[in-house]
Amino acid sequence: MSIKTPPTFKIERELLSQGYARIVGVDEAGCGALAGPVVAGAVILPLDSRIGALRDSKLLDERRREELYPLIVARAVAWSVGVASVEEIARLNIRGANLLAMRRAVEGLEMADYALVDAWTIPGLTIPQCGIIRGDLTVKSIAAASIIAKVTRDRMMRELDQVYPEYGFQTHKGYGTKTHREAIKAHGPCSAHRLSYKTFQYA
Description:
The protein has helices at residues 10-17, 62-75, 86-107, 135-138, 140-163, 169-172, 178-187; strands at 23-29, 38-44, 78-84, 114-118, 129-132.
């Protein structure tokens, strides 16, 4: 599927025809960052939600994501966020922390009866699930979850910027930009940085 083709409810409709009623889309944000938590979103979106602008969060600018966030929240049957901390990333590695955040997001929705997950399958879920490669591009509920996750994490990074203004978290959101790496060299890492990463092995 071309990235210009919007995501659809095709898979959700198929699952509804099989008897599932509350299908949750799941995605994460922050997996590739050098600082801050990893955040997952979980959204049960009705087929009549009529949010035509939904796309994978990575295809939208920050202003558009912030505009879509309240629409998703208002029109979702239910939604939830799961977070895995910097300490959990260090203990579990980023993949383990990512899966933990997604499981927490899904478990925040007691009503969900099937999970559609971007790329992964989540260990320990008590409901059926399916991991869909590039699901954030093709599946509407996963695209909605990607926006919830990204907006939530960006807001958390802006709050961290108030505590550690020298790193520029508000601008790069913890990702490994040139500006961020130069700030780390100048000031050393802070408690928000993922010190288990190779970036910091000599810090």
